Amino acid sequence: MYRYDEFDHKLVAERARQFRRQVKRRLSGELTEDQFKPLRLMNGLYMQLHAYMLRVNVPYGSLSSRQLRKFAHIARTYDRDFGHFTTRQNIQYNWIKLEDVPDILEELAEVEVTAIQSSGNCVRNITSDHYAGRARDELADPRVYAELLRQYTILNPEFSYLPRKFKIALTGSPRDRAAVALHDIGLRMHRNEAGETGFEVLVGGGQGRTPFIAHTIREWLAPEHLLSYVESILRVYNMYGRRDNMHKARIKIIVNQMGLDRYRELVEADWEQIRDSVLKVPQAEVDRINAYFEPPEYECLADIPDELNDVRARIPEFDQWMSANVAEHRVPGYSIVNISLKAPGLPPGDMTADTMDAVADLADRYSLDEIRVNHRQNLSFVDVRQLDLFTLWKKLKLLDLATPNIQTVSDIICCPGLDYCNLANSRSIPIAQDLSRHFVDVDHLALVGDFTINISGCMNACGHHHVGNIGILGVNKRGKEYFQLTLGGSSDENASLGDRLGRALPQDEVPAAVETIVDTYLAIRLDGERFLDTYRRAGIAPFREAVYNPVQARAVA
Amino acid sequence: MALLKNNAVIDDPFADATGRETIPASGPVLVDLDQWQSHREQLLQRTEPVGVKLRSDQPPESIAEDLHSIALIALEFPVFRDGRAYSYARLLRGQYGYSGEIRAVGDVLLEQLHFMERTGFDAFELESDDPLGDMQVASADFGVWYQPAADGRLSAVQLRHRAG
Ligand code: SF4
Q1: Best substitution site from A85, A92, A413, A423 to test ligand 1's pocket, by max atoms within 8 Å of Cβ?
Q2: Residue A331 and residue A308: Cα distance in Å, rounded?
Q3: What's the Cα-to-Cα distance from B117 to each of A227, B2, B54, B112, B126, rounded to whole Å?
Q4: What is the separation of C-alpha A444 from the centre of its chain, rounded to a whole number of angstroms?
Q5: Given 1.10.10, 1.20.1330, 3.20.20, 2.60.40, which CATH number is that of B2-163?
Q6: According to a count of CB atoms within 10 Å of the terminal CB, is the N or C end of chain B lower?
Q7: Does domain A413-556 have CATH number 3.30.413.10?
Q8: Tell me, what's the pLDDT at A232?
Q9: What's residue A345's pLDDT?
Q10: Which of residues 374 through 433 in chain A touch B, CB cutoff 8 A?
Q11: Count of CB atoms within 10 A of residue B160's CB?
């Protein structure tokens, strides 16, 4: 993992001290709430329905056990004993007091964690593939570039008052686990014709009320030019992005209005002037950062399929978990273990302080001290010896963290909704809880297979409903909560936005509708088809019929 | 309203003619972009310094040709959250090589002074009882910076790999 050097430490300490001063000026009335708001947002502090929420960054999803223990400590000392992992490799605390925040930031700084720019109209936490450095299909490790971007964007004087928030994500694998096409800038590592590794640069992706899949602004960019190219994209956005209407202020809107070609022209013209400036990333800095991401000293082991198969044959529950939650590692004898934060009936992504401590202990013992946080609100251990899988499974099971449902119908992404959020139309957590209680039969989960359900409590789409295989959006109809379903969304390398299924449904009809969709898929799928494949082949009609005209649909079938 | 430059509160040598019907015949003067464009020839002939004020929706491209004859560019923050002028200042100092005065005007507040200074502003029109004190507070926050900007401060990356 990256470790702070003297410069990083100094900057983060100075930032915490600065915020202490700003809070003091706010409390004494020197700053109005209007003047203070962007300052607190840029330090992660959000005003919610009942209290302040503090959002803390886990840069590119990489967390040490020591940091996780600190998260537990913060939850215990300053909050109500739990934290909530979000879709942006952040953790949120929902019950924070303003006066405590400077102390919390200082405590976080001790373990090299910050809340800097986790909110506000600035460049947010840089996110990446949670399997980075470990995935078998990876072309190059994106973390070094994520770290360079983290530093470049933190307290950037030119880009701290952008028209709107700005999100950047990177992947180094052809299999996109970081949803890069749904970001303001998406960076995809690939090789050019000469065989050199660089970035495909995408711009203008985003969700919210006007979702867009990002466009490729540049096919291939040499890594040394990463910062200058990002600077030019940001500069053009800062100058021309709309500021008259906050709902039209994201880069996706201006790229769309201006046209990609015009946007590209402006970016390239600016970039020509700065590409060879001091922004050119020195190789020495790449090497320095890369040294932190050197692979750990793995033991010389072999894969042990036979031993594992023996246990799997004897213990079906372990077998189900292996199939659903364990992924291939690039090093023989090791595996990646996904930890589900989606046990039936629990709010997705929530974790108590005690569980955080317990997971930190397990990470020390079984995963070389490291934990990864992913955008589907789960955690991963990325360096588990296959010899330890069975023991680890037993221990995770005791903590209720071994539900074998990764990337299945009950692995639901969900925003905080009306339980916390003042923008919400509806609650969203109870829908997720209903669904996860509905789909508890693990054999059924396995039968249904690869699936995503994403729930947002309003059109701001924090729960990524546009890109869920099934998306569920809370709407308000005559003062009552209703839910609009969409089908066919995906955030992977073939990203797509979901299509509306039909009229919105009341809450108590949602689980049955989801079940009908799942059953319809099972009835019409061809061999080897995921839900998404079936949907793309058969279209929305059979699903719409089944949900809204059950009698006719049955008569035809 | 106080004008802060080079760590001192100074009297503004420029007469503010922006939005006025007539431009004073002599003396240093500040005009807006409309005035500049409609009286460009006369203004270019003046021997005394001329400044141009740009609104936040007026990128400096509009005066790029004439920068060598403009002594002061005032960039307006209509509200402190409107961050366009940060980019204008950087473009002026960087791509356009402008070395005259870049003045922050409008909703200019303590908490943004440091970013302004970093992006190339060197004069600040502040509504404050203690503008010098504000600047001192704003400048004392940081002693390390992650990225190069227009102020010449070395970034952490540059310091880490300084030769020798
Ligand atoms: S999607 Fe809406 S309800 Fe949910 S967290 Fe975002 S703003 Fe709040």
Answers
A1: A423
A2: 17
A3: 21, 17, 18, 9, 13
A4: 26
A5: 3.20.20
A6: C
A7: yes
A8: 98
A9: 87
A10: none
A11: 15
Verify whether ligand 1 is closer than 6 Å to residue A457 (CB atom).
Answer: yes
Low-confidence spans in chain A with pLDDT less than 70: 551-557
ipTM greater than cut 0.95? yes
How far is B28 from A57, CA to CA, in rounded Å? 50
Cα→Cα distances A158→A153, A223, A469, B108, Å: 10, 22, 38, 15
Measure the CA–CA gap between A4 and B124, rounded to whole angstroms: 35
Q: Inform me whether the C-beta atom of residue A285 falls under 8 Å from chain B C-beta atoms.
A: yes
* Residues 6 or more apart whose Cβ sits within 8 Å of residue A398: none
Q: What is the pLDDT of residue A491?
A: 95
The CATH architecture annotation of domain A6-110 reads Alpha-Beta Complex (3.90)
Nearest of A430, A467, A470 to residue A448 by alpha carbon: A470
pLDDT tens-digit map of A214-249: 999 999 999 999 999 999 999 999 999 999 999 999
pLDDT tens string A112-170: 999 999 999 999 999 999 999 999 999 999 999 999 999 999 999 999 999 999 999 99
| 3-state secondary structure (DSSP) of residue A221 | strand
Q: Do domains A135-292 and A413-556 have the same CATH topology?
A: yes
Q: Decide if B148 and A17 are in contact by the 8 Å CB cutoff.
A: no
Count residue pairs from A and B with Cβ separation < 8 A.
107
CA distance B5 to chain A (A): 19
For chain B, the farthest-separated pair of C-alpha atoms sits apart, in whole angstroms, at: 60
Q: What class has domain A135-292?
A: alpha beta
Q: What CATH number is given for A306-398 in this structure?
A: 3.90.480.20
Query: How far apart are the C-alpha atoms of A378 and A416, rounded to whole Å?
Result: 15
Q: What is the CA radius of gyration of chain B?
A: 17
Of the residues A455, A458, A459, which should be mutated to test ligand 1's pocket, given the most ligand atoms within 8 Å of the CB? Answer: A458
Give the C-alpha distances (Å, rounded to integers) separating A4 from A11, A123, A389, B16: 10, 20, 32, 49
Q: Which of B84, B38, B31, B30 is nearest to B61 (CA)?
A: B84
Q: Decide: A142 and A187 in contact? Cβ < 8 Å.
A: yes
| Distance of alpha carbon A166 from alpha carbon A8, whole angstroms | 22
Choose among A158, A270, A285: nearest Cβ to B86: A158
Eight-class DSSP state of B161: T
Place of tokens 């396995």: A446
Q: Are A95 and A54 in contact (CB under 8 A)?
A: no
Give the single-character DSSP code of B126.
E
Residue of the nearest CA to atom 6 in ligand 1? A462
- For residue A429 the two structure tokens come to 């957590």
For the record, the structure tokens of B90 come out as 């950087």
Whole-angstrom distance, CA of residue B71 vs CA of residue B49:
6
Tokens of A272: 């020509």
∠ CA(A236), CA(A241), CA(A244), 5° rounding?
155
**Span from the CA of A311 to the centroid of ligand 1 (angstroms):** 43
User: What's the confidence (pLDDT) of residue A266?
Assistant: 98
- Long-range residue pairs from A39-43, CB within 8 A, at least 24 positions apart, any chain: A39/B111, A40/A98, A40/A101, A41/A119, A41/A120, A41/A121, A42/A116, A42/A117, A42/A119, A42/A120, A42/A122, A42/A160, A43/A15, A43/A19, A43/A101, A43/A105, A43/A115, A43/A116
What would the mean pLDDT of B88-105 be, rounded to a whole number?
98
Contacts of A169 (CB under 8 A, 6+ apart): A126, A127, A128, A178, A179, A180, A182, A183, A185, A186, A187
Helix H, strand E, coil C: the string for A31-93 is CCHHHHHHHHHCCCEEECCCCEEEEEECHHHEEEHHHHHHHHHHHHHHCCCEEEECCCCEEEE
pTM of structure: 0.96
Structure tokens at A369: 């001290």
Q: Going by CA atoms, what residue is nearest to atom 2 of ligand 1?
A: A458
